[in-house]
Amino acid sequence: MKADIHPNYRDVVFYDTSSEFKFLTKSTIETSETIVWEDGKEYPVYKIEVSSESHPFYTGKKMLLDTAGRVEKFNRRYAKK
Asked: At residue 17, does pLDDT exceed 60?
């Protein structure tokens, strides 16, 4: 491998600002902010708006399905005349 061409692969805390959820993982993302994690060590932090804790697909919340309206619209559009 060539020296000095690879990004810095390190532990990074991802912080979901919408649900106050944090998780520690490895990443090459660059950030200037840091945070003290549960183990007392300081890690770089990257703020995100959506994670598995706040995304409607994973939480099952905030999903409004208008099935009655869709069925009526389908029937009106494709009704035999």
From this structure: yes
